[in-house]
Amino acid sequence: MDHKTFLPQITLFILLLLYAGLLKAQENRIPWIPLMENAPDTIAGRNGAAPTYGEIGIPIYPGSFLTSVYIEVFENDTDGDSPLPGIYLVTSDDKEKVIQFYKDTLNKSNGWIYNDEYFIFTLGTTDNPFSRTIPGIAIREESGESFDLIGAEEDIKKSLKTRVKIIYIPVK
Fold first, then answer.
1. Domain layout of the chain by residue ranges
2. Partners of residue 167 on adjacent β-strands
3. Other Cβ atoms closer than 10 A to 22
4. 115-158, pLDDT tens digit by residue?
5. How far apart are CA 22 and CA 55, in angstroms?
6. How many other C-beta atoms are found inside a 10 Å radius of the C-beta of residue 94?
7. 0.90 exceeded by the pTM?
8. 10 Å Cβ neighbour count for 70?
9. CA distance 70 to 84
C-alpha cells in the first residue's frame, strides 16, 4: 500500500474510533452521589434511573455527582408550558471554577447568556432567569446540608463546595 492511500485510510479509521467513543460516552449515565450503607431507601429526587449525558444535551461539570432528578411534570405536559426537567449536581470544586467551565464551554453564538448577578446561564433570554420553562444552568455554593444529600457519604458531603442545577429539553 502506498503512502497516498494509506494515510487517508488510517485517518478515517482514527476518526471513526473517536466518534464511536464519543457516542458511547453519551450513553453513559451520570453518576449518583455515593451513599452510606445505612442511607434511607427513599430520598427525594432519586426515583428512577439517572439520565445519560446524551439525554441532557448540556455539558455536565466534570467529576460532579448527581443528587436529584425531576422529570415527572414535563413527561405529562400537554400544553407545552410546564416546567422542563431538571437535574442537580454537586462538586468539591469552587463556584468560580464551575462558572468558568460553563463560560468556556457554552457558546454565546448558540444563544447562551450569562447573568452574573445570579450566576445563571440561560438559553436565548434573560427575561426570567429563574424560569423552569427554558433551558438553563444555575450555580451556587453548597454547604453539604441540602435535602437531597441525606444519606450521602460523609467524607464527600464535607468536601462539597458547589451545586449546579441544569434545566434541559431532553434529547431523544
1. 1-28, 31-167
2. 86, 136
3. 10
4. 888 999 998 876 776 677 889 999 999 999 998 999 999 999 99
5. 14
6. 12
7. no
8. 18
9. 9
